[in-house]
């Protein structure tokens, strides 16, 4: 019989580090998959998830059990992602500097830029991810938590630390914005 989160956390607090390993195994895939949706990159999601688990282990004594462990863990991951983004935004490299340094023109790698672009299932998924990535962080996060992680409005409000009404509003606006962006991306080439 497996232990619930509260029992595992109690074991962690008593020095049984293997109990935290059980929590990692329980939530690593869920956290990683949700972070891919939020961050738009598997590499970033992997890094942020790892950071979140390390920080959660270091700060397990601060977990007050007023929320679910996953909600607390995801909040740590969001903070870690925001911190990474702030660091990334500090480094600005222009296309001119890249061109001068490498001696080559930057190559457009987006599938939509290729002449043979045809929309099949994989390409449509890529377009959805691209449209999702264009949403602001506050819209993308709540939409991913609701639609991909299937969390309740109450759980999302707890994770993003805002009222339920704000969560509902953000999800509604995110859906509208995503729909608009997808319509533009999914237009046939002859309609553009």
Question: How does this model look, in words?
Answer:
This protein has 192 residues and is mostly helical. The chain folds into 2 domains: 92 residues, Orthogonal Bundle (Rna Polymerase Sigma Factor, Chain: A); 84 residues, Winged helix-like DNA-binding domain superfamily/Winged helix DNA-binding domain (Arc Repressor Mutant, subunit A), CATH 1.10.10. 23% of the residues are buried. About 4% of the residues have low confidence.
User: How far from one another are the termini?
Assistant: 59 Å
Largest sheet: none
Give the C-level CATH assignment of the largest domain. Answer: Mainly Alpha
Low-confidence stretches: 112-119
Name of the CATH architecture of the largest domain: Orthogonal Bundle
| Strands, total number | 0
How many domains make up the 3D coordinates? 2
The name of the CATH superfamily of the largest domain reads RNA polymerase sigma factor, region 2, helix turn helix motif
Shape: globular
The H/E string reads: HHHHHHHHH
Number of helices in the DSSP assignment: 9
State Rg.
20 Å
